[in-house]
Amino acid sequence: MKIIDIFEETFSALAANKVRTALTMLGIVIGIGSVIAMVSIGQGAQASIESSIQSIGSNLLIVMPGAQRSVGSQVSTARGSATSLKLEDATAIGNEISGIKGVAPEASKRFQVVYSGKNTNTQIDGITPAYSDVRTVEVDSGSFITDQQVSAGSKVAVLGPTVREDLFGAEEDPIGQSVKINKIEFKVIGVTKAKGGSGFGSQDDMIFVPISTAQKFLLGGDSVNTINIAAETAEVMTDVQQQVTDLLLERHKISDPTLADFNILNQADIVSAASSVTGTLSALLGAIAGISLLVGGIGIMNMMLTTVTERTREIGLRKAIGAKNGDISIQFLTESVMLTFSGGVLGVAFGWGASFLMSQFAGLTTKISTSSVLLAFGVSALIGIVFGYYPAKRASRLNPIEALRYE
Amino acid sequence: MIECVNLYKTYVNGDVETPVLKDISFKIEAGEFVAIMGPSGSGKSTLMHILGALDTPTAGSYILDGKDVSKLSDDELADIRKNKIGFVFQSFNLLSRATVLRNVALPLVYAGVERAERERRAIEALTAAGLPEDRFSHLSNQLSGGQMQRVAIARALVNNPSIILADEPTGNLDTKTGDIVLETFQQLNKKGGHTVILITHEPYVAEHAERIIHIQDGMIVSDKKNFKRIETHHYKA
């Protein structure tokens, strides 16, 4: 029996009972469609979380002060309260650690900021020029902090877009104006581009000043709040983290790593923690949709069994005119695979449409990957084979004499 | 060309053995028109199933065109049916939603014949079976009983088989239509040289054949030439 003939026989058998074919197919369409739509929600969530984590910089390690203990005492102060991280630590990291692209120490505190009658309370961030690379901050207008300004301790400020909005409104150009931070005048030299909320504090509601200026006029002391380190590649991050830990332990003269007065956050860890959450979400949604696919598959089997019973005499006739068991079996199997596969194609279209509508009207981020589409096709064909196999076998094993007599 | 030698068929159901055919032996030459006649339960249907390679005998041998087919596997039997046997059933067994041409060409689909060739041979067979040409593209459930049986006959002819086996072909037809169908068989036998085996319980039907094998309780009770053959003349090919 030729392949083209198998398809023709299959097509005419399916066309003979259009309503039943369509209803059975609908089970698969809904199953595949909901898998596609559900997985697209899960993957969309994953993609949006990952991109917001990536927006704070790439391959980032963040060193933060831990709890300080006085020598010989076991009494710990609050985490993050230690003032043991110094600017020199950042310099030492920059000089001694291999595999890093940049180091950006950061000293910050919230202050009241005033400009001609308007005021706001915002984070004042003392930084070095490396910060713009390490944390991927881009300047929208004007310029960023320079090395010169850091070494000179200039009173200059770069505003985040939110601060600029609060103090100057949309119209006025802030560049060249002076704002008062904690009653000290700073000259505005630039405005950064909006990054959006990232879940780690808005990067837009900030004012950047040279770190030396911040320490001298605003904070007092020489400690820093954070040291941002950008590794060269994702692969060396663990290694860099280890080197930094060793270096800081040595510099702070701590022999027991469990008593370290700092913590290092690894961006890859945050990403993988977030991914595992969204991965679970995807799996959960996929599993719910998978159940409807299973039900669709059982519908296919049900219909195929009914068909085999209904067409018993026809099967007997086909055998009497020379069809082999294999011919009958392949014919019914093709029928169920054609049903599920065309259901799969429609289901992918339906799922794509559903996820498009959800992103348009429900504001959900959705993402349809090629792999999930290919998987859907594969799964739909597989369902046809799995649930069509038993009915096809049953058809092929019918005794032609009894089949011809069947009423 | 058909030879049955000491055929036995016994059905076993648990401990109960039911002998259906007992020591059947006969020969049918190519081009003969033979009726196998017997009351219901006589074993004639079982014999037809064996002759049609749908079933195998418990003992004895059945030789078709010089080949012993009594011990073949399912697939080998399917090949024999495909190449050497044409069936005509009492209830026609046409695919109701398919056209006449597709019904007739169906055996050729399983034989792997090309589409154009299938169509050509189907038309040839339908013409030989005497179906009017304007019916060829009809769906088979739009035909009358007599026309359906002619389509079934054309289907049996289409692969040019060694034997045409007709199982009560007039059972579902009125007398007049039945006569036409029987005459079609006579014409195919006489003009086309086809070997026809007619299975029936009606003496009237059997008397259309040249030779009648009478079977009762699984045994041949008589096997003789039919001297009072009925020949009617409704049929116009």
Give the biggest beta sheet of chain A: 6 strands, mixed, barrel
How are the strands of the largest sheet of chain A arranged? 2-3-8-5-7-6
Please state the CA-atom Rg of chain A, rounded to the nearest Å: 33 Å
Low-pLDDT runs of 5+ residues of chain A are none
Going by helix content, strand content and strand pairing, the class of chain A is alpha+beta
Secondary-structure element pattern of chain B, one letter each: EEEHEEHEHHHEHEHEE
Provide mean pLDDT of chain A, rounded.
Answer: 87
Helix count of chain B, per DSSP? 7
Largest sheet of chain B: 6 strands, mixed
How does the overall form of chain B come out from the CA principal axes?
A: globular
- Rounded Rg of chain B: 18 Å
Strand numbers in spatial order across the main sheet of chain B: 6-7-8-3-9-10
State the gist of this model.
The complex is a heterodimer of chains A (about 400) and B (about 240). Chain A is of the alpha+beta class.
